[in-house]
Amino acid sequence: MENELSKTWIDKLEILDFAFQPILNIHTGKIFAVEALLRNYQEVGYKSIFSLFDEVYKHRILYTFDIQLRHKALAKFTQIQNHQELKLFYNLDNRLFKMPNFSEGNTEIILQQYNVKKKSICFEISERHEISGDDYFEQTIGHYKNSDYCIAIDDFGVGYSGYKLLYDSTPDIIKIDRFFLGNIEQDLKKQLMVRNITHLAIQLGIKVIAEGVETEAELLTCQRIGCHFVQGYFVQRPTLKTDEILDEYEHIKKIVKDNKRLDNRAYKIKTYIEKIKPLDAASHTSSLIEFFNTNKNTSILPIVHEDMEPLGIIQESTIKEYLYSPFGRSLLLNDSYAKSKLKKLITPCGIADINSDMTNIIELFSNNPESLGIIITKNTRYYGFLSARAIITIMNEQNLLYAKEQNPLTKLPGNSMIENYMAQTMRAEASHLLCYFDLDNFKAFNDVYGFRNGDRVILLFADILKKQLSKEYFIGHIGGDDFFSAISFDKNNEEIYIDSITKIVQKFTEDVKSFYNQTDRESAYIEAKDRDGNMKKFPLLTVSASIVIVKVNKSRKCVQILNAVLSAQKKYAKNEVNHISISSMI
After folding, report:
1. Do 163 and 191 belong together in one domain?
2. Is 375 domain-assigned?
3. Torsion angle defined by CA atoms of residues 119, 124, 127 and 132, in that order, rounded to the nearest 10 degrees
4. What is the C-alpha separation between 175 and 28, in angstroms, rounded?
5. Same domain, residue pair 248 and 302
6. 336 to each of 284, 305, 331, 333, 339, how far by Cα in Å?
């Protein structure tokens, strides 16, 4: 298209520049894409990017201006090392369709000029301008999606359409807004909401980016929830220098490696993955027919882009009407019909990285009763298929192993799993908070009120731990009235977790009073025999907490030393006013 911009706007374009911010695979630290972010808008007289685009829109040159920006972004994108392996996220103003000179095909011309493949660009769209009630937002998505471009929805969760957007438009990628991710490791409500958004998106075949991540704790929480990618200051701030964009980010690689959960090591999903050869989405449907004719025992066929990024699956059941009737087969094989038909036959399928938490994969599968399985990727490329049968097998094995090692009363992990966790802690390049809990005066209570009420008290404390501590904690039952909890933490927020322990001590001390009769509650003690057989007054039940903070350490401490410190501290905790004793190993 012709450049209809005035010299004033051409001069402004010369000053404007793009910074790039990397988007990484959250499980490996390897780069997946960069987002192009407009810079130098202040230098051309605007307080914000939005005010610049509002001005361009007012002059009715938005589309022409945007086309020139695409030139600029792509020219700089090609300066990034190995850019052929990356996607470029480019932000679109969804008022483009209001412009009188909007026309089709211009992006393809630009891509050809810079020798960039269509698969390498992802148009990022936000609902920022949808308050008018116009449907330009969905029109923009539809236009570029129908032209086979990757579509990402920015600021997901704070827009106007929400889940309706996923239903109507089914984008390729959503970016969860920073609002939901700030301090997510401390906010159970945010964790629940992000988990629900992420799992729904994955079941629809949509990839999820955690955007605006600023701390290690936020990154690890998003990883555990199931997000595919991460972007934010914790990875790298936007940079104008293309040579600062790396293939891999070592600090992220190190974090995710050191924080792989125990479940992942216990269950090697590679053993269960079926290496079904996928079909390129651009293939003729004759290849589809040939596949199912050749593979009689396989009911699904994974479909991928030319770069092996998965699109979904085609189920044999959906094409039976075509396979088993002469008319249907001829329709599938018709050249004018075949190419468009293949994509229409694709069913969305959940996608997870091979390094994903197995617990998360099981949860994903369990939330969708109609799921035939999960597509497994490695560095965003198709790797294989984890069938429903394989996932159920893993679930059964996991339950059997867990049942063997859990405490029979509380169903919490027992000594073997606690020891494994502590050994893992000693190897990890991360700080941890470890805590032993010991119920005070439990034997006296058990003797006076009986072992059944003693069991009820133990179950009360186990329930308090489960409800008060977030999913990121490891919680175990050593045996009897001794418990254990632990969590890895960011260097700046250990006080938050100490506060959580304090609240548990206070809650148990208050709640357990209901197990005593009125007389004992008013007296605040009971009489029972001590270990020497002498009658003695014992205060009401409480709990002592022995906390050891293990800092990121250069020299490794053995588990025996750690156990010794935790045990020795228990008697000091019993004598503290708040029943908590804290030490630190550095």
Report:
1. yes
2. yes
3. -80
4. 19
5. no
6. 10, 21, 9, 9, 7
Judge whether 494 and 522 are in contact, CB under 8 Å: no
Count of H-run helices and E-run strands, the chain: 23, 21
Q: Residue 377 domain-assigned? A: yes
Residue 477 belongs to a domain with what CATH number?
3.30.70.270
Cα 243–Cα 12–Cα 68 angle in degrees, nearest 5:
70
Query: What whole-number distance in Å separates Cα of residue 423 and Cα of residue 559?
Result: 6
What string of DSSP letters covers 412-465? -B-HHHHHHHHHHHHHSSSEEEEEEEEEETHHHHHHHH-HHHHHHHHHHHHHHH
Going by C-alpha positions, the residue among 181, 161, 158, 198 that lies closest to residue 235 is 181
Instruction: Single out the residue of 37, 30, 222, 58 nearest to residue 129, CA to CA.
Output: 58
Under DSSP, is residue 37 helix (H, G, I), strand (E, B) or coil?
strand
Quote the number of domains for the chain.
Answer: 3
In 41-159, which residue ranges form alpha helices assigned H by DSSP?
A: 49-58, 62-77, 106-113, 136-146
Strand 474-479 vs strand 482-489: parallel, antiparallel, or unpaired? antiparallel
- The CA distance from 347 to 282, in Å, is 16
Are 435 and 530 part of one and the same domain? yes
Residue 222: φ, ψ to 5°: -65, -35
**Sequence-separated (6 or more) residues with CB below 8 Å from residue 373:** 300, 349, 350, 365, 385, 386, 387, 388, 390, 391
Can you read off the two tokens belonging to residue 237? 């701030």
Q: For the stretch 78-89, what's the b/e string if a residue is b when 16 or more beta carbons lie within 10 angstroms of its beta carbon? A: eebeebebbbbb
Closest CA to 552 of 218, 259, 233, 182: 259
537 with 526: CB under 8 angstroms? yes
Same domain, 95 and 241: yes
3-state DSSP call for residue 321? helix
Residue 374 sits in which domain range? 269-394
Are 551 and 473 in contact, with CB atoms under 8 Å apart? no
Same domain for 387 and 410, yes or no, is: no
Q: CA 352, CA 225: separation in Å to the nearest integer?
A: 11
Candidates 457, 466, 419; CA nearest to 438 is 457
CA distance 261 to 473: 11
Query: Please, what is the Cα angle at 326 between 325 and 331, to 5 degrees?
Result: 100
DSSP one-letter string for 193-249:
HHHHHHHHHHHTT-EEEEES--SHHHHHHHHHHT-SEEESTTT---BS-GGG--SB-
Do 249 and 275 belong together in one domain? no
Q: Tokens 């972004």 belong to which residue?
A: 73
Side chain identity at 271, as an amino acid letter?
T
Residue 399 lies in a domain: no
- Per DSSP, the three-state class of 43 is helix
Show the tokens assigned to 312. Answer: 């979904």
Sequence-distant (≥ 6) Cβ neighbours of residue 483 within 8 angstroms:
412, 436, 437, 461, 462, 465, 475, 476, 477
**Identity at 238, one-letter amino acid code:** P
Question: Per-block average pLDDT, block size 10, for the chain (586 residues)?
Answer: 78 96 95 97 94 93 94 97 95 88 90 94 78 61 84 80 73 92 85 90 91 92 92 97 96 82 54 91 82 87 90 85 61 55 81 84 80 90 92 79 76 85 71 90 94 94 92 89 86 79 95 95 92 90 91 61 76 84 80
What amino acid occupies position 535? M
The whole-angstrom distance between residue 171's C-alpha and the CA centroid of its chain comes to: 18
